[in-house]
Amino acid sequence: MEAIAIWLAETSASDVIQKTLWVIPVTQTIHILSIAMVFCSVVMIEFRILGVTTSQTIEETANRFVPWIFGGVVVLALTGSVLIVGEPKRSLPSYEFQMKMLYLAVAIGFTIAFVRSVRQHASVWATASGTTATANGRTLVNVLAVIALLVWGMVVVYGRWIAYTVPH
Questions:
Q1: Which pLDDT band, with edges at 50, 70 and 90, does 130 fall under?
Q2: What is the pTM of this model?
Q3: Could you tell me which of 19, 33, 56, 59 has the fewest CB atoms within 10 Å of its CB?
Q4: How many CA atoms does the CB half-sphere of 124 hold within 13 Å?
Q5: pLDDT tens, position by position, 7-31
Q6: Backbone phi, then psi, for 151, in 5-degree steps?
Q7: Among the listed residues 32, 55, 53, 57, the one whose alpha carbon sits nearest the alpha carbon of residue 43
Q8: What's the domain range around 72?
Q9: Distance of alpha carbon 56 from the chain centroid
Q10: Are 87 and 24 a contacting pair, CB within 8 Å?
Q11: With 80 as the cut, is the pLDDT of residue 76 above it?
Q12: What is the per-residue pLDDT for 167?
C-alpha cells in the first residue's frame, strides 16, 4: 500500500486536490454528512428489527431507508476517493483506514443480505416481529441486528480515527 500511496501522491490529481484549499474541507464535510445519513438509516432499520419502533413493517422500513444507505455509500465512495487521492500517504497505509474498509465491506454485505432476505421472504419478515415468531428465530434476528449496528458503528469509529493518526 505504501508504494501505491507514494505513486498516487505524485500524481497531478493529488497535487490539485492538495493545493486547492477548499477541496479537502468541503469533501470531508460531504463525507461526514453522508456517513451520518447512512448510519441513521441503518439505525432506523435495526431499531425496527429489534422492535424499538413499530409504526411500519420491516419491509416498509427497508424500502424507506435502504435507498438512503446505498445512495450514501455511493457518495461516500466518491468523496472518499477524492480524500484518498488528496492525502494518499495518510490513508492507504493506515491500519485504521484498512480496518474501516474491512468493516465497510462486511457492513455492505450485511445490508445486501438483509435486502435480499426481505425481498425474497417478505411474509417471514412480516411475522418476525410479531408474536408468531419462534423465540430462537427472533433471538437470531435480534443478534444479527445488533451485530449489523456494531459493524456499521466500527466503520464510523475507524473512519474518524483516521483523522487522528499520524501519517507515515
A1: very low
A2: 0.87
A3: 19
A4: 11
A5: 999 999 999 999 999 999 999 999 9
A6: -65, -45
A7: 53
A8: 2-162
A9: 23
A10: yes
A11: yes
A12: 66
